[in-house]
Prior knowledge:
Order of helices and strands of chain A: HHHHHEEEEEEEEHHHHHH
CATH topology of the largest domain in chain A: Butyryl-CoA Dehydrogenase, subunit A, domain 3
Distance between the termini of chain A: 33 Å
Number of helices of chain B: 11
Strand content of chain A: 5-15%
Helix content of chain B: 40-55%
Radius of gyration of chain A: 22 Å
Number of domains of chain B: 3
Structural class of chain B: alpha+beta
Oligomer: heterodimer
CATH architecture of the largest domain in chain B: Up-down Bundle
Amino acid sequence: MDLNFSAEELAFRDEVRAFIEENYPKHLKGKVLREDLTKEEFLAWHKILGKKGWSAPAWPKEYGGTGWTATQRYIWLEENARAETIPPLPFGVSMVGPVIYTFGTPEQKQRFLPGILSGEVWWCQGYSEPGAGSDLASLKTRAVREGDYYIVNGQKTWTTLGQYADWGFFLVRTDPNAKPQEGISFLLIDMKSPGVTVRPIKLLDGGYEVNDVFLENVKVPVDQRIYEENKGWTCAKFLLAHERAGIAGVARSKRNVERLKDIAKAEAGDDGKPLIEDEDFQRKLSELEIDLSALEMTELRTLAREQAGKGPGPESSLLKIKGTEIQQRLTELTLEAIGNYAQPFPRGLGANEFPVGPDYAGAAAPVYFNWRKASIYGGSNEIQRNIIAKMVLGL
Amino acid sequence: MNFDYTEEQNMLRDSIAKWAAGQYDFEKRREALKSDDAWRKNWGVFAELGLLAAPLPEDFGGLGGGAVDISVVMEEFGKALVVEPYVPTVVLGAGALKYAGSAAQKDEHLAAIAGGERIIAFAQAEPKSRWALNDVGTAAKKDGAGYVLNGHKAVVVGAPQADYLLVSARTGGAQRDAKGVSLFLVAKGAKGVSTRDYPTMDGSRASEVYFENVSVGADALIGTADGALPLIERIVDEANAAYCSEAVGCMRMMTDLTREYAKTRKQFGRAIAEFQVLQHRMVDMFMATEESYSMALRATILLGESDEERARAVSAAKVSIGKHSRFVGQAAVQIHGGMGVTDEMRVGHYFKRVTMIDATFGNVDTHLKRYTALSAEKAA
């Protein structure tokens, strides 16, 4: 039993740390992952990693993964969090990629995987619908087979950053008469296809991070269906499990705790002394840190199991629930720490607005409001509890 | 990074589980709570199974194991609700001797502990000290080569069964000074030692211990005079890590028992386990237990690090497990309904045990303050 990295792992950490230092674009330093980045800013690091062969560490080596152990991948995430890089977006690398290499044909793998790895192709997700959120299997977007094509009609929603996407992966209903889960297929759709309309949705933070996607008689070649017709739910479930692993976001939360401490050193508490010395604040900070330690240790245990060949099970729902709770508490405590200057809300921070108050203040409220999404997306935390109840506790 | 138990540790776990299933079921445990013979028999079994020798040095009759071995024992003890004073004897008493005892002291006591012939209780708390380890009023006054002890020690768990008392006493300085605290190992039968014995909330036994002009020789002093506080902090951290593992064992049982009960208990024409509000509560119990296990394991592994890192990890675990175990305990009783508050059901006894553990060597608030203070020191 020990918690230490081996000598090889430490050497690996030094290697990736040096690589990040040397190669992370200087003009992106200090920028954080938010929807008001430009498309180039979103993709810059992804493209550099693509060239290095490090854009999809979790993939099997034969498809372009790094062959790193689970611990090495953990170190990689830690180092990226430490350097506050803008990581590759999950839609290609973490979501559709694994579905394609797991369920796709050799031709599909050859056609789609390189663009995901290199960052050339931007993917988005077409899962939720206005009437199908937590009850995803009730989705109604219809795909009717006509010769070598499907004709797709319907509406998807909450499609994150769909406004930039080149391609999307969609769940569509191919058999309306089967049981809900048994009539769904998994389609890849070129977002430039005629009949695809993307309409951004304004959120509480004032930004446009998600979209409605309307599909009107969109012609989709049959060879863009992954896996068998009506077996799309298998891909969907697989993808959701993949999405949950790593969703704990421990490394980023650790970094954000450090940021919060810096803020609390700069801000004054009610008695005029630094906020970091305020007992009530300290208490909340300590509780947060302790809960984060528990989450980290739980993730490390999961990782060790994974390394021993036991993949992430339904327990990964625990990581999603606890990870997002902590992320949200962090945004909340950051907002509290800032006090008055949390109030100005000059939307369009990426645009030519002067920040009001300290540099760290401007993003606190938008991030706080934005981050309410975390306990809703990826299967809401209530759905995750249902999963644990059923799969782990057998209730 | 490695979180695997060794084969020996897995065997240790299995042997305890097997013994508990056969010889320490709920009814047999009740007997052990009542009669002196019963727990003495159990203590003999602990010696036979090597549980008492497990963490002791090999030179002195031990098996040379470490904190992980203790955590394995404690988690199983938690599941079986073992009330015998294992931690006071093996972690605190033997721990003090292991780290600071002279060769002669080790010779005299460690093999006897390993063999099950010696039980030690830690006479540390005082009526007004709460959980401050430095708050020591019991006086040890130099008297020739030896010392004379006077004072009152409070809620000394295991004292009714103990042969020896490990006593913190003041040899110098004022009531709450860090310096001036010393440790003594005193025979409970020594002249001037008197006790008032009573049961505690979880069915363990404890005593108020009074020292009235108790003369001890220089050889009763463990380690250096006036400088015992760091040693006390260390063994108490180790005890707390052990109790955290025990709490995890209790929480696992409460989660399992509650799940099984909810599957069989019917109301409104169906098993109450079908109600989502209860399902989610049980999921929260499961998550609390998993995170508690993580924290107990983390504290156990970090016991060997620097004083500061060890202290931070143990306090973090005490905070986390104190909160989680209270939640799990209360939820377990709640979901059992009226049955949960009866003495007849096992579940309530786990709840009592974790409540006792939270109130042992510092509760959630104590350790949250300690963690925060240590964090501030680290940042400075």
